[in-house]
């Protein structure tokens, strides 16, 4: 998986569906899509608060699957910052395949806290 920061709160993740992600001979396991979505909302939220020396953790995430991700698909996930509070961030993310078909979507709530509390910095 590779990501690009578009702007704070907006990132793009790319993930090919490879053999190690399959639940059946042809289709990706839903957990691999959920992990992609969690990474997408997490890095998106982190990009919105890292300049304040904060990090994030996911509190909850709702995932909806619209169709299968098939072996060989090139998936693209995008994050969207919905609302940023002092301690809580609301994010959404989508996953599309190379045909621009919506495969999955997530909405998530994340907690922000000082990077020192997570073990970074002094």
Kindly describe this structure.
The protein is an alpha+beta fold and 122 residues long. The chain has one domain: Thiol Ester Dehydrase, Chain A (Roll), CATH 3.10.129. The protein is built from 1 helix and 6 strands, in the order E-E-H-E-E-E-E. The protein has a 6-stranded antiparallel β-sheet with strand order 1-2-4-5-6-3, with helices on one face. The protein is elongated.
List keywords for this structure.
122 residues; alpha+beta; Thiol Ester Dehydrase, Chain A; 1 helix; 6 strands; elongated
- Beta-strand fraction estimate: over 45%
What is the fourth-level CATH superfamily?
Hotdog Thioesterase
The geometry reads as elongated
Order of helices and strands: EEHEEEE
Low-confidence stretches: none
Continuous helix count: 1
Query: Briefly, what CATH class?
Result: Alpha Beta
Overall domain count: 1
Indicate the radius of gyration in whole angstroms: 15 Å
Topology diagram in text:
Elements: E1 2-7, E2 10-16, H1 30-49, E3 54-65, E4 74-84, E5 88-96, E6 102-114
Antiparallel strand pairs: 1-2, 2-4, 3-6, 4-5, 5-6
């Amino acid at each position: 998986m590779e990501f690009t920061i578009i702007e704070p709160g907006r990132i793009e993740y790319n993930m090919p569906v490879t053999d190690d992600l399959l639940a059946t001979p042809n289709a990706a396991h839903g957990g691999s899509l959920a992990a992609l979505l969690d990474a997408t909302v997490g890095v998106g939220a982190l990009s919105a608060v890292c300049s304040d020396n904060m990090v994030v953790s996911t509190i909850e995430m709702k995932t909806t699957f619209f169709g299968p991700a098939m072996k060989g698909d090139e998936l693209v996930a995008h994050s969207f910052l919905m609302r940023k509070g002092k301690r809580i961030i609301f994010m959404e993310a989508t996953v599309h395949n190379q045909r621009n078909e919506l495969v999955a979507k997530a909405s998530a709530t994340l907690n922000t806290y000082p990077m020192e509390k997570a073990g970074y910095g002094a």
